[in-house]
Amino acid sequence: HLLRADAATAAIPVIAVTASVMQQDKKQIMEAGFDAYIGKPINLKEFLETVQRVLTSPRR
Question: What is the pTM of this model?
Answer without folding.
Answer: 0.78
